[in-house]
Amino acid sequence: MRLRLYCSVLVGAVAAVLLSSEASAQIIRGQVVDSVLGRPVTNGFVVLLSESGSDLVRSLTDDQGRFVIQLTTPGTYRIRSERIGYRAKQTRLLHVRASESIDVALRVVEIPRHMAEIRVTRESECRPAWEGVDTATLWEEVRKALTAASWTAEQEHYSYRMHHVAETRVRGRQQSIDISVSQASGSAPFRAENIDRLLDEGYVIEEDGRWIYYAPDANVLLDERFHETHCFGTKIGDGDLRGLVGLTFRPISSRRKTDVKGVVWIDRSSLELRRIEYVYERLPFSTGRADPGGSIRFQALASGAWIVHDWVIRMSITQRGRSGAAQPNVFRSSTEASEGSTVIEAFNVDGQRVYVHPDVVHLKGMVFDSIKGQTTPHTRISVVGTGYDAVTNAEGEFRVNTLLAGEYMVTSARL
């Protein structure tokens, strides 16, 4: 079994996007403010658009709602504000001459918080794709959040620490579990396979007798071709999902490849993205009690950028029937597997911590010699599979920082 899933912290934000460092560059400065209250709209995305309407550059507003975009060439542009919870607003055409600086102001209107009144729309074959204003309004907020996550994933100036767990179960009983902690820097986005392949071959593909599971990501959900092959609706969360409203998606009936159906959940009050949940549809094999699928949870940073808080995928490990069997193409499944990662910490390029998981714990203790009955200084304590270790002090005490709450094996060795 191979997983072509890549996990990453989607972090990073810059107050200004600089396309050129030349002193003679063209500059567009501006501020986004609430049209009613007059206060700055902070941590919102602004987009530089070409004259034809294509996205060119994205930037975040600072704590005063301000932004700066530096252009490589003169030309005609627009600026559009896409702050979650506010209606999108764009400027008139801006004609920027060589070495010119332009100041703009965008006054944006807050979206009324009436998501609690969303009704579940009748599902059809998605002709048209959006069945009513409620679904279209919900999609617009989901689109903003997914776009923010996608943009943030492209930033390459951050490091992060991940807690990874892989588990296998046979007939419901745990057979193995592997826990590790990794540290990485630069961009390693959580990303799906190329959508062309997903459309042509499906989300679960057999290669060399093994099944590869692919997950949808923000870019897949934003792609027009995903919308052409899926129906959308709305759903109100209850139980653990109370306070959330969901945009549902499912493959159209004419779709024959393995696909995904699920829900994109956003907060009903703040309209912020919370999670994507999905299950696999039309699998080419029986999974028994297993329910292959997964989830991706998101977290907004104080800067307005987003991170993937955690992701998990559940799989069924299948094998083709024995050679010479009456049904050689029958697949048998008795093994289930799951794999996922959780962000423990994230740091910006200056080494400042921009995120820490709320369940981070510190492991501390003391090492004794069981025969002599006394503490053992200068002993290395290692947390197996995590890369974490510590050395006891003169009193035999040790401390390991920033572990995610859970069960670990600890070993000791005298130095």
Annotation keywords:
4 helices; 415 residues; disordered N terminus; five-stranded antiparallel β-sheet; single chain; mainly beta; 47% strand
Indicate the proportion of strand residues: over 45%
Shape: globular
**What is the arithmetic mean of pLDDT?**
77
Main sheet summary: 10 strands, antiparallel
Count of helical stretches:
4
Protein model, in words:
- Residues 1-23, 115-124, 127-133 and 321-332 have low confidence and may be disordered.
- A hairpin with a 2-residue loop joins strand 12 (204-207) and strand 13.
- This protein has helices at residues 133-153, 195-201, 218-222, 224-228; strands at residues 16-18, 26-34, 45-50, 55-60, 66-71, 75-81, 89-90, 94-96, 101-108, 159-170, 173-185, 204-207, 210-213, 230-236, 244-251, 259-267, 273-281, 293-300, 306-320, 331-347, 353-356, 360-366, 368-369, 374-375, 379-383, 388-391, 397-404, 410-414.
- It contains four helices and 28 strands.
- The two termini are 40 Å apart.
- Strands 10, 11, 14, 15, 16, 17, 18, 19, 20 and 21 form a ten-stranded antiparallel β-sheet that branches.
- The longest helix is centred in the middle third of the chain and has 21 residues, at 133-153.
- With 415 residues, the chain is mainly beta.
- The chain is 9% helix and 47% strand.
